[in-house]
Each structure stands twice: as C-alpha cells, then as structure tokens.
Amino acid sequence: MKKEIKTSSLSEMKDIYIGKVGSTERDAYENELSMEILGRTIKNIRQKRRLTQEALGQLIGVQKSQISKLENGSNSATIDTIVRVFTALKAEITFSVNLMP
Q1: Second CATH level (architecture) for the domain 10-88
Q2: How far is CA 79 from CA 40, 46, 95, in A?
Q3: Model's pTM, two decimal places?
Q4: Three-class DSSP labels, the chain
Q5: How far is the C-alpha of 48 from the C-alpha of 57, rounded, in Å?
C-alpha cells in the first residue's frame, strides 16, 4: 500500500511558515524580497554598463556604501533614489500598482 504524500503550493507554505497575506510578517518578507530583486537588477545593469559602485554613486550624488547597501537589498531606498539610479544607468523603469482584494 502506497502512502499518500501531501503537497503544498509555495503560497500555502508561505502562509504556514511566514504568515498570511496582509500580516506584518508576510508584508516584511515580501518587501525584503522585492528589495533584494531590485538590488540584483541594479547590480546587473551597473556591471553591464561597466560602472563601479563608486562611479554610479558619483553620478547620482551618493556614497559608494549607499550603492552597495541598495544592491545588497539592505537599504529601503526612496522612489526618488531608485529613479535617479535607473536614470543614471540609462534604464527605463515602470511601476505597477495592483489593488489587493
């Protein structure tokens, strides 16, 4: 007799181990994940443009350490800073707003 294995979706696993959508814990997790993805994107484009963190910082008027923090997802940057970074990198950005139920 085969034992049935219960599987769960990623969303269900997040609900169980992180918290339900809309909870403080889940919101913090999702924000952190978004910042990490944003940071990786900035780093990839910066490297494709052959800029150092210091050079990018000079283009937008911030220290190299701020670029490093942004790329590592450890800084929650303002929209203004993000726009300035992508403008300096000559990359078009768009924002999407989706209403939650």
Answers
A1: Orthogonal Bundle (1.10)
A2: 16, 18, 10
A3: 0.72
A4: CCCCCCCCCHHHHHHHHCCCCCCHHHHHHHHHHHHHHHHHHHHHHHHHCCCCHHHHHHHHCCCHHHHHHHHCCCCCCCHHHHHHHHHHCCCCCCCCCCCCC
A5: 16
86, 93 contact by CB (below 8 A): yes
Task: With a cut of 50, list the residues of the chain below it in pLDDT.
Answer: none
Specify the pLDDT at position 18: 83
Residue with tokens 């992508």: 86
**Torsion, CA 66, CA 28, CA 82, CA 56, rounded to 10:** 30
